[in-house]
Amino acid sequence: DTEVTQTPKHLVMGMTNKKSLKCEQHMGHRAMYWYKQKAKKPPELMFVYSYEKLSINESVPSRFSPECPNSSLLNLHLHALQPEDSALYLCASSQGPGSYNSPLHFGNGTRLTVT
Amino acid sequence: AQKVTQAQTEISVVEKEDVTLDCVYETRDTTYYLFWYKQPPSGELVFLIRRNSFDEQNEISGRYSWNFQKSTSSFNFTITASQVVDSAVYFCAPSSGANSKLTFGKGITLSVRP
Question: Which end of chain A is more exposed for a tag (fewer CB within 10 A), N or C?
């Protein structure tokens, strides 16, 4: 079983809805990540949180809003999404920022469909 | 500029065959790490191995082995006696810099037929 837990596993939402994706880890990791993966493509980095502070935003549209309430939790708030935002959203964690030798541990992902 | 290349896109083998997955990473950084991840059809990304740019010693772990050659920027991964459960997409992913920014190659889809 993965040590990074993502909920929900599947989500269908309309373009006017507001929803949130949740991610939790209890490995004591201090860096957490959101990746987006389209079908048959590699994962693409969206956001990085280091010690609960946003350290990287890869020019992600504002309709995606990340939040890190504490070192174990990471949320991704969704609002006014477009059908092209349909994808697998992966959360990951690693031991710490600045330690680029740390492997990332991924959750199982949330498969999002925007109608 | 940094560039990771997985030239193979799809590989199909029969069970028990050996298969090698290729990865080339071009960078001017002298210190970096290279990772291999596996993504089975269920979707989760599984960490397989990490190597640093100073360590060219080859490694074997069960049916898996890795060959890193800095002179050719290649970090290849071999599965010996492949099994159907090895069917997955395999990503090579380099990481460098203080922000642990991991960038994935395009991935290689491996299909192992019984």
Answer: N
